[in-house]
Amino acid sequence: VQLQASGGGLVQPGGSLKLSCAASGRILNIGDMGWYRQAPGKQREMVASITWGGRAHYADSLKARFTISRDNAKNTVYLQMSSLKPEDTAVYYCKADLTFRDSHDITIAQKDNWGQGTQVTVSS
Fold it and tell me: How many whole angstroms separate alpha carbon 20 and alpha carbon 105?
């Protein structure tokens, strides 16, 4: 199984970006999905999370500008970011709780599966 994040890039302050993270492989079920970020020299922090049913939770400082959503049919979680600031510059990682079949056809329920990260740079 794999989590593939995409959509990062360079954006000017005040601009918007939409990140995507798709889960692939022999997936049977996806539980909570979320986005985290890590700026240079800082610890990784939670940005937002969302349950299978669509209940979202945000870092207090970001809820006014960021929106998390998911498409369960596509095994994908999104992060719409608006009014971006230089301090939003970071590598953004997705995380998901996955149930899948491994190469031996054994069902595995595994929390905290991480994607590879996508760089977001906010600069003029």
Answer: 28
